[in-house]
Amino acid sequence: MRKLPHPIKRALRDETPDDETVERLWEATRGKLRPARPAWQRVALPATMVAVAATVLVLLFVRPWRAPELLVRADGQPLSTMIATTPQVVALSDGTTIELETGARLEPMAERPGFASFRLDAGRARFAVPTSTSRRWSLDGGIAVIDFGGAAFAAWRQDGELEVRVFTGEVTLRGKAVPNGEKRLVAGESLSLGNSHAPPPPPVIAPVPPPAEPPSEPAPRRVLDKDTAAHRPLPRLAANQARADWRALADQARFAEAYAQLGATGVSEASARSASMDELLMLADVARRAGHPQEAIPVLERAERELSDDRRAGLAAYTRARILAEDLKQPRASVLAFERALALGLPATLTESALVRLAELELEAGNGARAAQRASEYLAKFPEGKQRAKMQRIRGDAP
Amino acid sequence: MATAHARIELDLILRAQEGSALAQGQLFARYARELLPMLTRLLASNADAEDALQDTFIEAFAALGDLREPSAFGGWLRKIAVHQAHRRFRRRRLLGMLGLDRHVPDATLAELAHDELGPDQRVELARIDAVLARAPGRERAAWVLRHVEGHELAEVATLCDCSLATVKRWIAATQARIDRHVGSSTESHDA
Q: Which among A1, A2, A3, A4 is the top mutation candidate for probing chain B, defined by the most B β-carbons within 10 Å of its own β-carbon?
């Protein structure tokens, strides 16, 4: 009698659920995750609605509704073409800020009460529009138009490409290059459109000429003549193909190859082009894991500085702090980076780790008082923390 | 630093801790494919497995803020799933005592057998099913995790939240019942 295999599941069918089943189960689970409204809300809500309706009627008669004013700069100057020869921040009268990277060109278009329109001709612009705004906005990015209200997002346009990254709120992209003609992006999402995201044309292979007579040595085989202008890849296509390739290698944890794919100054160039926290963190990973931790530092600094609204900005600072401490042996800079990470915000687990490292670094630097202060901070926040005993020792508590 | 996969998961966990429904959904999709088959084989019931899966994630997301080590998320989630299976075993036993157990065992080992499996192996699976159906829940779960799922003893102990000695005792007790009932044992892997 044949024995059952071990483990027995090898004798069983693969019951891995398909996407539809997973989706169905998630919808059922998500429905249970939403907290139910308590009973008192079911009584209070209708009463509240009546009160709100009454308030609206009062406002309509007592205070006429005022349309949003025309948009100007915060200093009262009218809007005009913005060309950034250096990084600059433009503040507008409604509280909106527009950050322009060097080389960016932003043109105001139509403007009327309740609506503002711009065109991004080139470069990178970051919009932060207050959520309290009632104004609608439109940004023409060439191959797509971005419609938005209160939101924070960055758009980067170069030649026939557009990349959009949303930090808070939501935006809607419209255009032929947009999947299904329209795409809504919410916080944390990004979308890249344009030439590099179309399938590359198939390579042209020159026919192998038949030999006229048996050669004494093999005739050179002309497969793809890279020196021929017609076959030379477009610089942008080559650059973007390299860009796609390094990501694929990094996804497979082949960091040395990803670094080699980017080339000698590739990490720096790729990070300058990137508007994506995902990509910047991945570039830092590549640099560090390929043995070039010092190249990860400016990448992470840029992520913290320019994407500070991204909830992973603290993670970028935390990562930089660890590189400075562990790889580059720069404890003072590491302390500042950990402090920056805490200021940007970290989840509980990393906050705990950051406070421990700060206490240790201060102690190693001979700053006993500051080390004790950090240890006290840790013990106040994490009284049952794993490093409780160590922090108590650093603080000088009696055993 | 973590690999790209681990970093993406860390990011999802951080966002889920902050209440992001999108991140919760992505974590669900990542782990449901592994946990649902395991729960099905543990509980021998498709409906119970689906309920247990949902309750696993409800419990996990409610307690996610307490997770100290995001890198341990997978193991922690599996432990919650096994705990949910134990809850259902206890409920079945209680309902069974009251004559109210209505669960349908539509995913027994014999039901899940490969089409290519021989008749003698199917018979053995059916006999194992009969023993497991009557075994105490904790002993049953420990045996299934070891011999059906293939986890090492230490991992089974972690998932069952008990000591190694206890889990060995549970597995041995269930194996002894199977040996008596089946007449031959699965090859012993517990030296």
A: A4
Q: In whole angstroms, how far apart are CA B158 and each of A178, A212, B32, B67? A: 49, 75, 20, 16
Q: What is the mean pLDDT of residues A71-97?
A: 82
Contact B113 A13 (CB under 8 A): yes
Check A349 against B118: CB less than 8 A apart. Answer: no
Which residues make Cβ contacts (< 8 Å) with residue A70, sequence separation at least 6? A111, A112, A113
pLDDT of residue A51: 63
ipTM summary value: 0.90
Closest-CA residue in chain A for B150?
Answer: A7
Per-residue pLDDT tens digits for A211-243: 444 444 444 443 333 334 333 334 444 455 555
Interface of A with B in 145-184 (CB under 8 A): none
pLDDT, tens digit, for every residue of B136-191?
999 999 999 999 999 999 999 999 999 999 999 999 999 999 988 876 544 445 54
Q: What's the predicted TM-score (pTM) here?
A: 0.43
Among candidates B54, B68, B121 on the partner chain, residue whose Cβ is nearest the Cβ of A25? B54
The CA distance from A350 to the nearest CA of chain B, in Å, is 9
